[in-house]
Amino acid sequence: MSSPVTTAALQKSEGLHPTKGSTFVLLEDPATPRTVTKQELTDHLVDTMGLTGKESKRLVESFFNTMRATLAAGEGVKLHGFGNFTLHDKRARPGRNPQTGEVVPIAARQVVTFRASPLLKEVCLAAMEEQG
User: What is the mean predicted confidence (pLDDT) over 31-55?
Assistant: First the structure.
C-alpha cells in the first residue's frame, strides 16, 4: 500500500515546484522496491501539465533521447537539484569465473555513473524519516 508524501521539502528549492496539489507517492515498505516507468512520467505530465498523451510521450522520449545522445558523445548530464550523470573509464582487469575459478580478462570500458545532488539526498532522507 502506498501513501502520499507532501512536497514541502521540494518546495524549499527554487525550480522544483510541482503543480499545486500534486504529490509524490512512496511505498510504505522500503524493502519493496518500486520503479517509476516512462509511462508513469507521461501520465503525470498529462495529469499535472495539461498536455495531451502524445505530447507528453514525445516530451519524455525527447528528454531521454537527449540524455542518451549527450552521454554517447562523451559528455556528462547535469540536472540542477537532481544530480549528475557522468562517464568514467574502467581499466581492463582480470576477473574470475566463480564456477571454475578460471581467470577471465575483463575488457576496458566506459560506464555511466550517477551522483545525487544534495537536494535530492535531503528529499529522500526526509521521505524515509517520514515513513518511519
Answer: 88
What distance in Å separates the CA atoms of residue 57 and residue 41, rounded to the nearest whole number?
9
Contact (CB, 8 A) for 106 and 96 = no
User: Confidence class of residue 15 from pLDDT cuts 50, 70 and 90?
Assistant: very low
Cα 53 versus chain centre, distance: 22
Place of cell 545525487: 116
**Among all chains, which residue has been given the C-alpha cell 528528454?**
63
Q: Checking DSSP bridges between strand 2-5 and strand 77-79, what pairing results, if any? A: unpaired
Mean pLDDT (the chain, rounded): 81
Q: How high is the pLDDT of residue 57?
A: 96
| Phi and psi torsions of 34, nearest 5° | -140, 140
Question: Between the CA of residue 50 and those of 15, 33, 60, what are the distances in Å?
Answer: 19, 30, 14
DSSP notation for 28-47: S-TTS-----HHHHHHHHHH
- How many Cβ atoms from other residues are within 10 Å of residue 60's Cβ? 19
Whole-angstrom Cα distance, residue 54 to residue 43? 10
CB of 64 within 8 A of CB of 103? no
